[in-house]
From TrEMBL:
Protein family: Belongs to the ABC transporter superfamily.
Listed name of the protein: Branched-chain amino acid transport system ATP-binding protein
UniProt KW keywords: Amino-acid transport, ATP-binding, Nucleotide-binding, Transport
Organism this protein belongs to: Rhodococcus triatomae
Single GO term (MF): ATP hydrolysis activity
Family annotation (InterPro entries): AAA+_ATPase, ABC_transporter-like_ATP-bd, ABC_transporter-like_CS, BCAA_Transport_ATP-bd_LivF, P-loop_NTPase
Length: 274
């Protein structure tokens, strides 16, 4: 994996500001990406755009984090990639296939998994039944995928007969991630996986995300815990008012004085570890 994208400019290494300033350059960097979104305009209410010319890409094997202030449109971007919000302008592509506004069941079959922030388990079902629900389209694959998921989350097999409603928030998050992994996705979309969890479970979630990625799944993660997210990400996007404000490697975003001043400072109170 390259540590930082190259801009093709004859000058010195691009700064985050330069990358953010040129959508054409971003489009060039996105060539050959596993997932790419170009010029997305989307929203919930007619006439009100939440995403406003938003660009994004994810390369094979990457973990990419999306951070930004409250209401910036981070979750909306994730939902739009997963076809849950109608796209008004722009496109979403998966390995070059146009999947703009494709329905969720088609995206799941194409190898996209999505874990919403809330209500992401069936509380009245056991852990095992939740995992079965994740693969109801391919029930013959259950045993193989269950073994894979249990390897990543041993707790899920140890407590497989426990109802999801009886689990802690962190344990439920593991069930939700495990369920999405049952269909063997190539890319996993995670909406604020550490939200509302104790610091110990937050750490656990980030460690699991790394492990999922190491097992061959590319990951797109929206996070409030911006610093921790950038620590584990190959690249990050800072969204502000539905647009890309900055994009660069996680490490460089974390150390960029403007990003720190404008975003990481104001996000510091969101339960993250310093
Ligand atoms: N179902 C909805 N109907 C109408 N507006 C919505 C809906 N969901 C979100 N919004 C609005 O869209 C904007 C972006 O919300 P979104 O949840 O994408 O932000 P976010 O960056 O993920 O913020 P947060 O970190 O607070 O979750 C906000 O102004 C929000 O009020």
């Amino acid at each position: 994996m390259t540590d930082s994208p190259t801009s093709g400019r004859p000058t010195s290494e691009p700064t985050p500001a330069e990358l953010a300033a040129t959508p054409a350059e971003h489009a060039k960097l996105a060539e050959g990406a596993l997932v790419r979104a170009d010029g997305l305009v989307a929203g919930y209410i007619p006439g009100v755009d939440i995403l406003r010319d938003c660009n994004f890409f994810l390369r094979d094997g990457e973990i990419v984090g999306i951070i930004g202030p409250n209401g910036a449109g981070k979750s909306t971007l994730l939902k739009t990639l997963f076809g849950l919000i109608p796209v008004r302008e722009g496109s979403v592509r998966l390995r070059g296939d146009d999947i703009t506004s494709a329905p969720a069941h088609i995206l799941v079959q194409k190898g996209v998994g999505y874990v919403p922030q809330t209500q992401n388990v069936f509380p009245s079902l056991t852990i095992e039944e939740n995992l079965e629900m994740g693969i109801y389209l391919r029930p013959k694959k259950f045993a193989e995928r269950y073994a894979f998921v249990s390897d990543l989350f041993p707790l899920l097999s140890e407590r497989r007969k426990v109802k999801a409603g009886a689990l802690s928030g962190g344990e439920r998050q593991m069930v939700a991630m495990g369920r999405a992994l049952m269909m063997d996705p190539k890319v996993l979309l995670l909406d604020e996986p550490s939200a509302g969890l104790s610091p110990m479970f937050q750490d656990e979630v980030f460690i699991r995300c790394k492990a999922i990625n190491a097992a061959g799944v590319s990951v797109i993660m929206v996070e409030q815990n911006a610093r921790r997210c950038l620590q584990i990400c190959d690249r990050g996007y800072v969204l502000d008012q539905g647009r890309n404000a900055y994009t660069d490697t996680g490490r460089r975003l974390m150390n960029d004085p403007k990003v720190i001043e404008l975003y990481l400072g104001t996000l510091a109170g969101s339960g993250e570890k310093k």
